[in-house]
Amino acid sequence: MFDAIRNLFRPPPQVPLPAVPPGTRHYLIGDIHGRLDLYEALIAAIDADDAAQKARDTQVVLLGDLVDRGPDSAGVIDRTRAWQSERRVRVLAGNHEDMFLGAFKKPEILRHFLKHGGRETILSYGLAKDRFNALTLEELFERLPELVPQEERDYIAGFEEMIEAGDYLFVHAGIDPEVPLDEQKRSDLLWIRERFLNHSGPLEKVVVHGHTIFDRVTDRGNRIGIDTGAFRSGVLTALVLEDEQRRVIQAIEEADGSIAIVQGERAAQEA
Questions:
Q1: pTM summary value
Q2: 238 pairs with which residues across the strands?
Q3: Could you tell me the strand order of the sheet in which 24-29 lies?
Q4: In CATH, what class is 16-92+160-270?
Q5: What are the boundaries of each domain within the chain?
Q6: Which tens digits make up the pLDDT trace of 163-173?
């Protein structure tokens, strides 16, 4: 009887917080969209942060949309490749990489690509503005393979679709909440929005994603959105996962054009 009474007043067991595998540290970077300046600052901050922490099996994951809209997509690609020669950096495919590669296949896909930030990407590969403006769509389609070599396109085509780490899943856009992880379609991983964002129930893993812009890092329990709209807001975000801990590091463009680094435990987040 007394055991029953004690059990009645015993606090409920704590639900374990999601965690990455023991001994690991993950730096997840949201949509860069050609903002090489913010990216360079965030790289320096991440390298310094990792060096200052206890040694761990560390990896960086870029959540896709490295290209388009911002001024230096080609520079972002080059810097990523250089960073990969220095540390473990994995890259997920985003819908803008999907459009970029599709632009080499058909002029109509190129037209769609240009409407969604592709113009800035093409200019970043060395085509002068006046020359770009003088070309017809068909002429630009013919010129494109000269601007972006096949080797560069093969590199982008090799970006991953999803990465699992303990209780977390990293993807660009999200997942179909009605489909098991091993049956997800590439189109959903790169493009999904409302069906994923509006799902309030539990998912197989906590999904960390980009693709949809939020003013702040957004934690909804079953998902965490870290695309803070770098190309227009001047804020590029990295989420740091270690054991059950979460931290945020942000590169923020100031009014005078300088870039500040802001970081902290769950800083700049909302539930």
A1: 0.92
A2: 29, 249
A3: 89-91, 57-62, 24-29, 235-242, 245-253, 259-265
A4: alpha beta
A5: 16-92+160-270
A6: 999 999 999 99
